[in-house]
């Protein structure tokens, strides 16, 4: 069963996101209080714990939720295999996949440490289609 393991936000861009107890997802914006929110196609990012574990196996140390700047850390779903346009439901919130992967920031700490970074290949980006609140433990359904 796919589930949310953490909700993460940051107050400014370019820094590691910190886990929060629950996130309020706003249609047309993203997560309230997150620096990456706005009227664009990458309102909310997701990365699987399985992807983070791959980096740990490669030698990256101290990896925690949000270190790859993902808003939602998941478990039990291969996010990067979902086609663009897929809708995911977590509680009352519905997100739509808009992009798979992205360019890595130059100077990324993970890249420096192990010579690779998983977010550009396995992270996904979504927009908020139906708002509400999500917390860790929420089940993820593919609509």
Distinctive features:
globular, 8-stranded mixed β-sheet, 143 residues
How would you summarize this macromolecular structure in one to three sentences?
The chain has a single domain (3-142), classed as PK beta-barrel domain-like (M1 Pyruvate Kinase, Domain 3, Beta Barrel). With 143 residues, the chain is mostly beta strands.
Any overview of this molecule?
The protein is globular, with a radius of gyration of 14 Å. It is mainly beta and 143 residues long. The chain contains three helices and eleven strands, in the order E-E-E-E-E-H-E-E-E-H-H-E-E-E. The chain starts with a strand and ends with a strand. The strands form two sheets. The chain has an eight-stranded mixed beta sheet. A hairpin with a 3-residue loop joins strand 3 (22-26) and strand 4. The chain has one domain: M1 Pyruvate Kinase, Domain 3, CATH 2.40.33.
What name does the CATH topology carry?
M1 Pyruvate Kinase, Domain 3
Point out poorly predicted stretches.
none
Largest sheet: 8 strands, mixed
CATH architecture: Beta Barrel
Radius of gyration using CA atoms only: 14 Å
Detail the topology: elements first, then pairings:
Layout: E1 3-9, E2 18-20, E3 22-26, E4 30-31, E5 44-48, H1 49-57, E6 72-75, E7 87-90, E8 93-100, H2 109-114, H3 119-122, E9 124-130, E10 132-135, E11 140-142
Parallel strand pairs: 5-6
Antiparallel strand pairs: 1-2, 1-6, 3-4, 3-10, 5-9, 7-8, 7-11, 8-9
């Amino acid at each position: 069963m796919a589930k949310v393991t953490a909700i993460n936000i940051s107050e400014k861009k370019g820094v590691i996101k910190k886990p929060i107890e629950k996130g309020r997802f706003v249609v047309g914006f993203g997560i309230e209080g997150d620096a990456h929110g706005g009227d664009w196609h990458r309102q909310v990012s997701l990365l699987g714990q399985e992807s983070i574990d791959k980096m740990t196996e490669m030698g990256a140390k101290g990896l925690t939720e949000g270190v790859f700047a993902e808003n939602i850390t998941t478990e039990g779903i291969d996010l990067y295999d979902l086609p663009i346009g897929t809708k995911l439901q977590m509680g009352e919130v519905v997100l739509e996949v808009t992009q798979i992967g992205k360019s890595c920031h130059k100077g990324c700490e993970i890249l420096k440490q192990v010579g690779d970074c998983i977010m550009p290949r396995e992270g996904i980006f979504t927009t908020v289609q139906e708002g509400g609140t999500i917390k860790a433990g929420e089940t993820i359904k593919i609509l």
